[in-house]
Write a structure and sequence with these properties.
heterodimer, A: Rossmann fold, four-stranded parallel β-sheet, B: 187 residues, Fumarate Reductase Iron-sulfur Protein, Chain B, domain 2, 2 domains, globular
Chain lengths: 320, 187
């Protein structure tokens, strides 16, 4: 069993609890243990860098030091947490003076960071460390016919970290979706920005950015947008009504975490994946899963859409 | 011999630890502006802002909303042919304007950043409802109703915590941050 120091991030306790639980569920199926970093703190998001860069590094360093004590590499499910932790880690490894200064501060909490930790994004762990073949073996109900827009967002791919993941033309998200049987649509806005915290600082600009993304997903005929970041999910899903009001549009497209889609394909009960807390109903996705024949029946040649039409919907879909 | 630093030098210095080339290597190709998803909402595009910095137009630069309209998507940094990393420049200008108290008072960004940092200093973890005062009054009564409705939407789905969460060793945590930089007056 592979183990990682898991950094949930502040939103995992509230707005993206569904990402958190679906990460743990799918991880367990794939033989990964996500050991939560003991007493972790906020990564600083963007505001810390707006005030002071040293402070921002200090916040990240505390989490890295605790992970180092446990002897584990760090995995973060959020694009922004990943960017911050990865950036601070690289700076601390490269700059001895900086590390010395930060370590003087860490002593106040009985900690020291020696630079032995690597930082990964959750989706990178799944596609690289676990591998698509291993994921494929766990797929019980391929999401056949489900059209998904793979939305990477910004800080997952940028800035270029020289880690082999292409910042301009990545394909691993689409590959992952294909592995679970879904249809990855051609989504030209997949690397565009969701507006992030601009939703607070400059609402109209952020809403326009979300509108462009939603429009591109709808034009690509996607049933659902898959994300790998709590802030992307919040902006794309929870602000859809605001976009509609602002621009007179009528978007109503579900936005799920890639772990939730993986979990559904693995036959995990929707409720265990946090499904049921959305603002925009993910019913089209659940219908697609419900339409799939049960694993045992899958062996028998196709008997198209007979009984499954009456399958009780939503959260009960995974039950016997 | 020159004894005072130019504005461009000052800003380059505030971009410490970013591994960037100096702003004076900018060739004004406007790749940053073209790739910026928020450029339409900026007083000056990133390219023009760099030109203004290099021309020493300090007051005009600090009075602009450009850097507070950056969403940190890093598109410009990924594509700048001179490796200037304009997104780091935007961070540097935010810091400079906060340190010097030179930001436009009507902007939400600075108030939000300072409130966010104060919250983390206190508890070690983010708590969204605590930031509301930074922006909730921005849109007038209509905006306030809108924000409340948004909060209720999330609350109904148990996606907003009613009580802020905090790190366990919070006293140690605060001492740690004060060893890096005493924040009184800055945040």
């Amino acid at each position: 069993m592979k183990r990682y120091a898991y950094y949930p991030g502040c939103s995992a306790e509230t707005v993206s609890a569904s990402y958190h639980v679906s990460t743990l569920e799918t991880g367990a199926r794939l033989g990964i243990e996500f050991q939560e970093i003991e007493d972790w703190n906020c990564c600083g998001a963007t505001p810390y860098t707006n005030i002071d860069e040293l402070l921002a590094h200090g916040l990240c360093a505390r989490n890295l030091a605790i992970a180092e004590k446990a002897g584990l590499d760090v995995v973060a499910p959020c694009n922004a947490c990943f960017k911050n932790l990865h950036h601070a880690n690289a700076e601390l490894k490269a700059d001895k003076d900086l590390a010395e200064h930060i370590n003087f501060a860490l002593e106040a909490d009985g900690l020291h960071y020696g630079g032995a930790v690597n930082v990964h994004h959750l989706i990178h762990v799944f596609v690289k460390d676990v591998g698509l073949d291993a994921i494929k073996k766990q797929v019980k109900q391929p999401l056949k016919g489900l059209k998904v827009a793979a939305y990477y967002g910004c800080q997952l791919v940028r800035p270029d970290r020289g880690d082999g993941f292409d910042p301009e033309a990545p394909s691993y998200f689409e590959d992952l979706l294909k592995t679970i049987g879904a249809d990855a649509v051609d989504f030209p806005y997949r690397l565009h920005c969701c507006g992030a915290s601009l939703m607070i600082a400059n609402r109209r600009a952020a809403l326009a950015m979300v509108r462009d993304l939603l429009r591109a997903a709808v034009q690509a005929k996607a049933d659902v947008i898959a994300t790998a970041c709590p802030l992307c999910q919040l902006n794309l899903e929870c602000y859809q009504q605001d976009v509609n009001r602002e621009f007179g549009t009528k978007y109503k497209i579900p936005v799920l975490y890639f772990t939730q889609l993986m979990g559904l394909a693995m036959g995990i009960e929707p409720r265990k994946l946090g499904i049921g807390t959305e603002v925009v109903s993910p019913q089209p996705v659940l219908d697609c899963v419900a339409r799939r024949p049960a694993p045992a029946a899958a062996a028998a040649p196709a008997k198209p859409a007979a009984a499954p039409a009456a399958v009780p919907q939503t959260v009960k879909a995974g039950q016997p | 011999m020159k004894t005072t630093m130019s504005f461009a030098d000052e800003i380059s210095n505030v971009m410490y630890a970013t591994g960037t080339r100096g702003l004076n290597s900018c060739i004004q190709c406007a790749t940053c502006s073209a790739t910026c998803p928020a450029a339409d909402y900026m007083d000056h595009t990133p390219r023009r802002l760099i030109a203004m910095i290099n021309a020493g137009l300090k007051d005009e630069v600090l009075a602009s909303n450009t850097f507070w309209t950056c969403a940190s998507c890093y598109s410009c940094s990924a594509r700048c042919p001179k490796e200037i990393k304009p997104s780091e420049l935007m961070y540097a200008l935010k810091r400079y304007s906060i340190w010097h108290r030179r930001y436009r008072s009507r902007l939400v960004g600075p108030a939000f950043s300072r409130r966010f940092v104060r919250t983390i200093m206190r508890t070690g973890k983010s708590y969204e409802p605590g930031y509301a005062p930074a922006f909730i009054f921005e849109g007038g009564p209509v905006g306030m109703v809108r924000e409340m409705r948004f909060a209720m939407r999330l609350m109904a789905r148990r996606r907003i915590a009613l009580v802020p969460s905090r790190v366990k060793r919070v006293a140690n945590f605060r001492r740690m941050l004060s060893r890096i930089m005493p924040l009184e007056g800055v945040a």
